Amino acid sequence: MIPDLEILSPCSVKEVVELLSKNNPDTKVIAGGTDIIPGFLIDSNRFRDINCLIDLAAVDEMKGISESDDEVTIGAACTFTEISRNKIIKGNLPLLSEAANVIGNPQIRNRATIAGNFINNAPCADSVPPLLVYDALLEISSGEATRRTSLEETLLNPYQTFVLPNEIVTKIIIPKKRKNYYGTFYKLGRRRGVAISRITLALLLLIEDNKIKDMKIASGAVTPIGMRLHELEESCIGKSLGKELFKGVSKNLGRKILDVTGLRWSSHYKVSVVQQMIYQLLEKLYKEFKEAELEK
Amino acid sequence: MYKEKSEETVDKFSIVGKDVIRQDGFAKVTGQAKFADDYRFHGMLHGVMVRVPVAHAKINSIDYSGLLNDPSVTTICDTEDIPGAKKVGLIKQDQPVFAFDKIVTPGDAVAMLVGKDEKKLRKLTSKIKVDYEKLDVLSDPLKALDKNAPVIHPDSGSNLIIHYPLRKGDIEKGFSESDFILEEKYSTLHVEHAYLEPECVTALPLEGNSGIKIIGSIQNLYTTRKIVASVLNLPLANVIVIQAELGGSFGGKDDIMNILSSRAAVAALKTGRPVKIKYTREESVLESHKRHPYVMHYKIGCKLDGKINAMKVDIVADGGAYASMSPFVTWRSVVQATGPYEIPNVQTDVKAVYTNNPYTGAMRGFGSPQIIFAQESLMDDLAIKLGITPAEVRRINGYKNNSITASGQKLVDHDVNLLKVLDRAITKSGFTNKWGNNKSLNEDKNSITIVNERTKTDNNLLITDKEFIEPENLIRKGIGLALSFRGCSLGAEGIDTTAAYISLQRDGKAYLLCGLAENGQGLRTTYLIVASEVLGISVEDIIYMEQNTSLIPDSGPTVASRATLMGGGAVKSAAEQVRSRLEEVLKEEWDLPKGSKFVFNNNRIHIKNIPEKVIDFCDLVSLAYMKGINLAALGWYQGPHVDWDEETGQGPAYFTYVYGCQVAEVSVNMGTGEVYVDEVYAVHDPGRVINKLGAEGQVYGGVTQGAGYGLFEEINVQDGFIKELNYDQYLIPTSMDIGNINIEFIEGEETYGPWGAKSLGEPTLELTAAAISNAVRNATGVRLFNLPLNLEEVLLKRKLHPDDLKRGSA
Amino acid sequence: MKSNISFTLNSKKVTIICNQETRLIDLLRDELELTGTKEGCSIGECGACTVIFNGKAVNSCLILAGQINNSEIITVEGLAENGELSKLQKMFLKKGAVQCGFCTPGALISAYALLLENENPTEEEIKIALSGNLCRCTGYKQMIDAVKSSASL
């Protein structure tokens, strides 16, 4: 049931932060509302006792996508429709573009915002694995102070992020240092149209002399929160590409996921599939690399 | 359309079989169509249910004191307010309008808050305190008949709802004379209708509380009228049931609407004001009935030449908390359990049992999708065992003209087009080559079996080297078919009659109404086509009347794919009556020679071979009106005699049958278990196609529903509770989840129905899951026995459940 | 909290006093008596309540009245002009894309929103555009055909 509410419509980040600090736990920010409003209906404890919403629709500072020589900046209130169609994103962050394209359905993508996707730190937030492999940074404002921190450090535990009650994420900043990387995003759902993810993976690979120079891998849905798998990445640096390596990486990923999650009811399925699919993704990227080499 | 007949026969119709825009189309595309929740009435109150989160309990008392003097609550209704029957049901009266002695499933409501503000009422439901004692929960239908099982309805003595035996020939002899035996077990899960419109109904007291008017999302108006009348203790005529535009039903807006209408009616009479009940999606899924889960044990004895000599079928259906339609659903199963195959020795036993699970009842297919999945899986395995194709094994055993069914019925009075639909589907889809190629490619490399074995034997979740699939082998293709026969209309379930009323106005326009109801399938359009064909007027000249039980005789329920056959028959009869009266007028007026042939076409009547004899339809009607001729008629259509022996399961179960074959082509992702249906070829014999757009719509929609049933629709009931209460958890196919559907209709000679038109709605759905499963078998080399073929089933050959680990079965 | 809400609805200015937490769907159906917009799930999964909000298809069950000031909204009632059906509506009828009709308004709006942005969509684009509109009757085929034919007119 939707509670009685006051809805405020500030026009600037400054006003938003003032309202947040003036108000109290009963106040929450709303953008697309695609999480909060269903949350009200099921009486989710995440949204209980709220009596005031701050609508970000008029805060232009939190919108828009821009790029400089070294970074791409995405307004926290950008919708997934905007992100999936934006040329800057398509050119620089194709994995994010792909993920944005398969979140929810068109109506949801027209409303749901990028910050709204990760701010609750739900395990199945599809944009998180791409953002993690792109080393996304967040700009978080609390009025006078603005801090920059990595998304990875902000994602603490399931449904818990390190953003204080008087703070708001205003921008997502992504360093542009991914030239020559091969990358892919993978999502598995129970049907093709609109489905909660069973597994998401994002993978970036830099190849030099047929060896892995750099690798970034992040998972979602199959881990309790979206997470980067640093140990796995490091273990691959310098290794020669090929089936042997890919099979090893797959098994290590399976091991790592089991370490993180323990044995769950879904493990027999998910762990088998995640190993099989990371193998497929590695093979796919390797094939792309070989084809590109041939063209050279 | 595939033209089996000469052009002349096909073209003898002016509108039958052609594309006609649906009668309610304009209202529906402009948002003007009024569904149940679109009605508002002065002084209207809302009803909100009070439930207890328990699956099985004895109710000691209900304490309303928390709501005394609450201004938001106009009144509270519970069983004490019911003047008549406190428990209802079309077949067994076991379902309370408000639960009073026991709660037997979590959907049960104990009371209803009534007031002006629905939102406020919803917040107040927790203030009612129900004192109850929990009872042991029975969730496994296979344990329902155990001696120590809790008895859900003590009045019934046991948890057995119904047992249908069928005996033909000598089963033991049949097996002993067979060359080999095949035996398998199959299962299916609860499935939700998932009509887009949640239930909604408003009850309005008639003047002086003399009766009640119900307007709602109701599929079977006469059933609702009967139940409400029994609850209110009123004569049938004092209960008027009107159908709002119905936002989908598929058998679903049946029992639940009887119950909701009863509750709204009780509250309306108590308050003297209109009372509306509108369900949320969650309430709808929680309380409404589902498709039956079946556990099926099939055993066949076969000769080396491919002839099936004996078939033994044992089925247990989970009826859930109430009998509902279980006795009729399982009866269709017993009639059709052995499929469209002529088998000399048959022993079938179908039982439906009570559990504390959500109750199960009518859903499009009605006891056939489950058995077709089992029987068609087994037929394919038989073909593989014999080293012949799936089509060959079906040709050897399939029904032909004059075949004898399992219930001893000789198939006469119609073309038995079983092998014709099979052959067309085979040719159209290029089945034989594709099936053979896939089979030889896919039989040997069996990664699914490896995953299954590894994860089953221990908790070794790390993939072995041989399990890695090379990218080019990740997706495999498969093709599969399924074949069925289906009894048309109600069969020996009950009285099978339908009425239609037509009334010509003096300007040549007409009113039309049939007692069967529009559920979205387009029957009003079909009836307009029938009347229009008979009278030679345009469908736009006929106004379809409001669906109202006080305007037209009880025509039974709109179920069993009977609307075109039975309702179409009644409409045709009504239209022919007025037509013959018009012909009489002309005979007199024109002094025609004996045997003159009237042609009613294009809003004109002329006499064949006498070109100068022509009159406009409106002029003729006007003439007849001036002569005082009765221009209204009631059409009546009665199904021929059918019969069933409850002891032996023998008798002419249905008066006619339809035949269908579907072929599915699938892509299976061997790494994830994803199955995508690339193509479906659906070849059906509906007797005759009246409403072409509507008929094709039935096939597209039925196949898509059937694909959902085959692949991902499932409700996992845990101790009586449902987790999948909304569309985020209960997945139905979206626009992205179904490939091409190729349709072909084969028409045949038929004694019954308007110009031989029979049934189509349910046959379209019942075959798809079975065809998909056979295609997955063809793609992977692995036979799967449990619907749906979800990700886990395909990859691991079993289902996983959130409480698997708790139960220690991991 | 009650407040004054102004917006454009089917090309007409509307000002209404209502609770800010009122969902847009309730505002349309209960306050403005535009009952063409339907409610099927209340959580943004079924699309029966789809309306166009500032040029985009959205679920009106997930928008609150306090969020719609100065916006432009189009509902199914706004698709026909002076009683003349739009070509999209005509094609829905001609192709048999309508059965029970409960999902029809939402599906029409999603298709209309697609055609606003993309005059000549591919079949895949049409399927994606309709993927947030569940239909239990039609199997989608005729809807997809209707959008395709409407685009090519």
Quick overview of this protein structure:
The complex is a heterotrimer of chains A (296), B (810) and C (153). Chain B is α+β, with helices and mostly antiparallel strands and 810 residues long.
Topology record:
The complex is a heterotrimer of chains A (296), B (810) and C (153).
Chain A lengths: L5 E3 L4 H10 L4 E4 L5 H6 L10 E4 L9 E3 L3 E5 L4 H6 L1 H6 L1 H8 L4 H4 L4 H6 L8 H6 L3 E5 L4 E5 H4 E3 L2 E2 L6 E8 L6 E7 L10 E10 L2 E10 L6 E2 L1 H7 L6 H19 L5 H29 L1
Chain B lengths: L6 H4 L14 H5 L15 E7 L5 E7 L11 E3 L9 E2 L6 E2 L5 E2 L5 E7 L2 H7 L4 E6 L25 E9 L2 H6 L3 E8 L12 E6 L6 E5 L4 H12 L6 E5 L11 H17 L3 E4 L2 H7 L6 E9 L5 E13 L5 H11 L8 E10 L14 H18 L3 H8 L20 H12 L1 H12 L4 H11 L17 E13 L9 E8 L5 E5 L8 H13 L6 E3 L18 H28 L7 E4 L2 E4 L2 E7 H10 L5 E7 L18 E13 L5 E13 L4 H20 L28 E8 L15 H4 L1 H13 L10 H6 L14
Helix pairs in contact in B: 5-6, 9-10, 9-19, 14-15, 15-16, 17-19
Chain C lengths: L1 E8 L2 E8 L4 H8 L18 E4 L2 E4 L12 E3 L12 H8 L9 H14 L5 H7 L11 H12 L1
Parallel strand pairs in C: 1-5
Antiparallel strand pairs in C: 1-2, 3-4, 3-5
Helix pairs in contact in C: 2-5
What would your notes on this structure say?
The complex is a heterotrimer of chains A (296), B (810) and C (153). Chain A is α+β, with helices and mostly antiparallel strands and 296 residues long. In chain A, 38% of the residues lie in helices and 24% in strands. Chain A has 12 helices and 14 strands. In chain A, the strands form 4 sheets. Chain A has a 5-stranded antiparallel sheet with strand order 4-5-10-6-7. In chain A, a hairpin with a 2-residue loop joins strand 8 and strand 9. In chain A, helix 11 runs antiparallel to helix 12. In chain B, helix 5 crosses helix 6 and helix 9 crosses helix 10. Chain B is an alpha+beta fold and 810 residues long. By secondary structure, chain C is α+β, with helices and mostly antiparallel strands. Chain C has 5 helices and 5 strands; from the N terminus they run ββαβββαααα. Chains in contact: A-B, A-C, B-C. Chains B and C meet through helix 2 and helix 17 of B and helix 2, helix 3, helix 4 and helix 5 of C.
